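> example.struct
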């Protein structure tokens, strides 16, 4: 494994590694991706072993611009073109019918393929230098927190990745919005920074929401994005009393809050996140990682409001945490 600043020569080296079937981690505006040549099933297979991810979980193919849609998707609907024009490059992945040439290794055996043009200068330069699609899931081990900095990728994957391009911290910090346009009606598979209503405004139609399934979109599974320390979420109005109760039980707690000020205490490790959704999203995964390293008894997360701008964050928090009531019982 080699971690390098993403300058011209590093990008050229990365493109060459991809051509040879290697694995390259690179920054996008959402999270770091673990990339392989999307046209090379053996290279794509290496992504699954590096991540410890089951082979039936499909990957997103990253492309350099919307003109490349036709290289991967079959019968591209008008709705996809409209969304691409409005949101690409950007944090939106679209699931479309795949062309026969797209390897099943990439699509997890499905007849559809997810495509996205990332909005990050390093990702775009890499895509242009490589000249074809790069299959890339988030560069974390299966079910772990997505990396938003190059060092996180190194911690997660070590020598399983050949080269890590360091492009600094990711600007958005949560994964892209995914929309399925392969069926009769558009379906929102994963919320992200681009909101449901922004997409509905472009499509002039309502989006269906994916029923909780699991295998189709692993990002939708209930256990996902999880730290190793048990993490619990707690409504803002009960946060303080819950912290008091935990301290009364002599527990070492990590706190992730955005509005509550909890007094300093030797058994408390407190991280204050920004009170705005965009700032919060950008720091969330790094904060969870930091708390996870401290060998705490538990991490307590203050639940953000249930508004549209917090939807992607709440979705990830629901997957990374359990409701506080579950364990241990709070003495009322
Ligand atoms: O922001 C992002 O999308 C990041 C960066 C690296 O681009 N990538 C990412 O990839 O989050 P990953 O693999 O961690 O999540 C991809 C999601 C999975 O939930 C997967 O199930 C879904 O995309 N997906 C991919 N292809 C699909 C398909 N053909 N049908 C349904 N879901 C698909
Ligand atoms: Mg992921």
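> example.seq
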């Amino acid at each position: 494994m080699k971690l390098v600043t993403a300058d011209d020569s590093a990008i050229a080296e990365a493109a060459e590694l991809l051509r040879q079937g290697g694995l390259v981690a690179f920054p996008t505006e959402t999270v770091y991706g673990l990339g392989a040549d999307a046209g090379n099933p053996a290279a794509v297979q290496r992504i699954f072993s590096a991540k410890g991810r089951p082979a039936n979980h499909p990957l997103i193919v990253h492309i350099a611009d919307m003109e490349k849609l036709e290289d991967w998707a079959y019968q591209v609907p008008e709705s996809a073109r409209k969304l691409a024009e409005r949101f690409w490059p950007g944090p939106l992945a679209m699931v479309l019918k795949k062309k026969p040439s797209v390897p099943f290794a990439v699509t997890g055996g499905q007849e559809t393929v997810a495509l996205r043009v990332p909005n990050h200068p390093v990702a775009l330069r890499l895509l242009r230098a490589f000249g074809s699609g790069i299959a890339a899931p988030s560069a974390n081990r299966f079910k772990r927190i997505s990396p938003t900095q190059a060092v996180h990728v190194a911690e997660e994957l070590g020598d399983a990745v050949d080269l890590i391009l360091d492009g600094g911290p990711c600007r958005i910090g949560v994964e892209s919005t995914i929309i399925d346009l392969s069926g009769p009606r558009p379906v929102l598979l994963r919320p992200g920074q681009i909101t449901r209503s922004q997409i509905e405004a472009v499509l002039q139609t309502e989006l269906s929401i994916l029923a909780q399934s699991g295998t189709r979109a692993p990002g939708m599974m209930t256990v996902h994005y999880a730290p190793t320390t048990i993490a619990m979420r707690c409504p803002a109005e009960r946060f303080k009393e819950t912290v008091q109760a935990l301290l009364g039980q002599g527990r070492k707690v990590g706190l992730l809050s955005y509005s509550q000020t909890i007094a300093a205490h030797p058994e408390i490790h407190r991280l204050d996140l920004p009170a705005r959704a965009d700032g919060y999203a950008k720091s969330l995964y790094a904060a969870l990682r930091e708390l996870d390293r401290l060998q705490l008894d538990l991490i307590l997360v203050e639940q953000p409001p249930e508004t549209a701008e917090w939807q992607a964050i709440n979705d990830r928090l629901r997957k990374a945490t359990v409701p506080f009531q579950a364990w241990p019982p709070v003495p009322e």
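> remarks
Residues 231-320 form a domain with the Rossmann fold fold (CATH 3.40.50.11030).
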